[in-house]
Amino acid sequence: MRFLLVNPHYPISETPSPPLGLAYLAGALERAGIEVHILDFVVFPYSPAVIESYLKNIRPDVVGVTSVTMNFKNAIRIIKDVKKFDTNILTIMGGPHVTFCGDKTLITYPDLDVVVLGEGEQTVVELAEIIQNHDDLNVVKGILYRNGSEIQATPMRSKVDLDQLPIPSRHLLPLGRYKALGMPISMTTGRGCPYQCIFCVGRKMSGARVRLRNPAQVVDELEYLNTLNFHQINIADDLFTANKNHCLAVCDEIIRRNLKIKWTSFARVDTVSLEIISKMKEAGCNAVSFGIESANPKILKKIKKGITIKQVIAAVKLCTHIGITPYASFILGLPGETPETLKETLDFSRELKKMGLSSGFHLLAPFPGTEIRENSRQLGIKILTDDWSQYHANRAIVETPTVNKKMLDKIVSAWEDEYHEFLANIQKRMKRGESTRAESWQLINLERIVLVYELMMEGIIEKCGTWSSTDSPVSGRVLLQKLASRISDFKPCDEDKLSNTLQYHLEQGNLRYDQKNGQICWKWVDHLWQPILEKGPASNHQAVGGVVVPGG
Ligand code: B12
Ligand code: SF4
Q1: What are the tens digits of pLDDT across the range 158-171?
Q2: Closest CA to 160 of 121, 203, 117
């Protein structure tokens, strides 16, 4: 029995982390003795031919694809590729999109066989057993499947005990690529959120009851992640500060072990206090993200956010006082939004900026499963499209009676222009030698990320990085110059910038070369497998039939 799990493409601008959900599923499958591979199109180039070559080499019995709403179309394209290759492969999909529109999805896309609802660790293991024994799918809880022309639903599964789950199988993920792109790595200390924000899917996925992991095991995992040298670790709990005692216990354990770890987390402005924020700071937390959503009290009430402007200001002041960077997320286009409330929110974010808060703005995306979508009419929201690829929250897909798409899109375009001007301004001052070190670093880093992403997604190192060499042994610097020159012959670019970027990644251990059998071969370091918390040697996840598959 072999599983192939796939992460479909979505843009780097969303600062993706290595797909934790897939690593959890893989952990559960591996523990059950089932062979599993992961293919990640966020950091590898996608094409039907690539999928075909993986399928030929791995020969999976089941292909499972994850998706959020905005990359659902990419996910379904992969499912179609799989069925085109072999109709006998069972195709399954899970994640926060299909969990809430599984029936419709199965009806619309006959190539998809099964939808897994909610948490998938136990479900995939049971599915594997059922398929192996040729039993009926109806005994597997928490799925939707096609039975002739009918869509069958099995009873819901109760939520898992987090301490019973295996450590996520991160050795199967191309962590090195995420690290080279400067993305954070994530982990969770608990799942669930007791609040009721009407635009949120997270709470519905993980449940209103907060389930917590043993703090010592949490810190074991943090300690392991720290050895991987990502520039940032993100605690991806829906709400890390949901349970004060747990939050303090995790921090205390980090402090007790004297670990020097930089991490970030999500919080609510009404769940932080001097005690919590000071302890988080002492334990290495350097930034906290708050969902503020709107400055208008009536809107906050309508969306059941349950916070006040006074609490927002207090939380921001508290963080800056203690030395933790506060971030805020606002949503525009919420129920009750008017031109006046938009101005109120934008003005408020400017006020908070003066206090040291950085803000990110999203436009409302009414995801399947949310109260805001289900009750859109009563809430005065007009949903403009069901084209899921538009649900990225960067362009308007809803209107209120007084705020139309044009008004919302204009605000976003203005921010985008402002951001580009900001970067152009640093560039100008950098050329004149007037920029600060931090500004120059910010720009250089951004340019590096863009270049590395292009190199990865166009497969340039793979195309240009292998040549025969009879000279022995040649220094790394010479080989790097040759690589840069081969790349710039292939893809016109600034050779100095390219050389510096390659040099940087060689030094950071993100890029490496082998010199053997008369060949030089450059490659990205995909896997950062460290045996600290793993369950034994990585099994057969390396080269399969000439194609290097993720793993090992
Ligand atoms: C941390 C987080 C992030 C991080 C890291 C994301 C990442 N990919 O690593 C950051 C900040 C970068 C981020 C970005 C975005 N996020 Co986010 N994020 C979360 C958060 C809080 C936790 C996700 C997580 O790590 N959960 C823990 C893991 C273990 O669970 P999981 O991934 O859901 O996987 C489990 C199940 O879903 C299921 N499953 C998942 N896939 C599959 C596949 C198969 C085959 C099977 C069988 C089962 C299965 O089994 C897994 C194990 O139990 C969730 C809230 C939530 N609770 O879902 C929102 C959430 C997933 N994010 C959301 C959104 C919208 C986004 C963005 C699109 C932002 C935007 N522009 O609006 C981007 C897109 C990134 C992406 N593709 O995930 C929405 C998704 C809603 C939707 N329907 O699309 C959520 C639900 C929050 C919300 N608004 O309600 N996010
Ligand atoms: S507090 Fe955060 S996780 Fe909880 S329901 Fe609101 S938005 Fe969702």
Answers
A1: 999 999 999 999 99
A2: 121
